[in-house]
Amino acid sequence: MVAVVFIASFPAGPWQTNCYLVAPGDQGPCVVIDPGVGALGPVHDLVAEHGLEPRGVLLTHGHIDHLYSAVDVCAAYDVGCWIHPGDRARLTDPYEIAGAREVVEQELGHARDFSGREPAVVHEVADREPITLAGLAFEPLHAPGHTPGSTLYRIAPQEPETRSLVFTGDVVFAGSIGRVDLPGGDAATMRETLRTVVLELADDTVLLPGHGGQTTMSRERASNPYLSAQGLTSF
């Protein structure tokens, strides 16, 4: 069995970024992970549908498709957000990816000015220092390469015979990995992250990526070309 938690998710905005609402039960306190472009409305809907109460926002990294609605969600529910210090500057300057502003304008009809618009409360995460929110214990695993502050969030097994859950952001996907050619990306750093962070995860770990469907570590170890010995040297 996987760790016993409740998860609701939806793909947000033009980049179809997975936003997750995670709770220890099917109602009550929850955590919002990566509220992307246009995510506030769907978050409201899921909160109402399932009787949830957001207690914080976790950001896997600082790209605009993962943090666009963080200010809105934090303000709507009077909660803080958590991000690695390596990506904190992107909270107020997220349009570094070429064409990102134009894509948002096309999707929403406008593109907000983020200057000086951090959430009211920002917590900087540190590698492997647990974060307890909404009755859940998240372990941040610093995983740079896609961006300097990219972070995995692991929920350890809650009961015997359950499996870890890891929210991977854009570090690893089903069958692929995050790009290293965007601002802040670095191929050598990503290779080190894959070797020392991703490949160290237990085979039965369930991976919940920032885009696409969930997978398992055993499946990725066996079939993800970027995690093979040859793949680790070919990008």
Can you give me a brief rundown of this structure?
This protein is of the alpha/beta class and 235 residues long. Helix content is 22%, strand content 27%.
Poorly predicted regions: none
Count of β-strands = 14
Q: How much is the average pLDDT?
A: 94
Kindly estimate the percentage of residues that lie in beta strands according to DSSP.
25-35%
Order of helices and strands: EEEHEHHEHEEEEEEEHEEH
Radius of gyration from CA coordinates = 17 Å
Helix content: 10-25%
In whole angstroms, how far apart are the ends?
35 Å
Structural class: alpha/beta
Note the overall shape. globular
Largest sheet, in brief, is: 6 strands, mixed
Given the structure, what is the number of helices?
A: 6
Characteristic terms for this protein:
six-stranded mixed beta sheet, 6 helices, 22% helix, alpha/beta, 235 residues
Could you explain how this protein is built, in words?
The protein is α/β, with parallel strands linked by helices. 22% of the residues lie in helices and 27% in strands. The protein has helices at residues 40-50, 64-67, 70-77, 100-108, 187-198, 217-223, and strands spanning 6-12, 17-23, 28-33, 52-58, 81-83, 122-124, 131-133, 136-142, 151-155, 165-169, 172-173, 176-177, 206-209, 215-216. A hairpin with a 5-residue loop joins strand 13 (206-209) and strand 14 (215-216). The protein is globular and about 45 Å long. It starts with 5 loop residues before the first strand and ends in a 12-residue tail after the last helix. The mean pLDDT is 94.
Give the arrangement of secondary structure elements.
Elements: E1 6-12, E2 17-23, E3 28-33, H1 40-50, E4 52-58, H2 64-67, H3 70-77, E5 81-83, H4 100-108, E6 122-124, E7 131-133, E8 136-142, E9 151-155, E10 165-169, E11 172-173, E12 176-177, H5 187-198, E13 206-209, E14 215-216, H6 217-223
Parallel strand pairs: 3-4, 4-5, 5-6, 10-13
Antiparallel strand pairs: 1-2, 2-3, 7-8, 8-9, 9-10, 11-12, 13-14
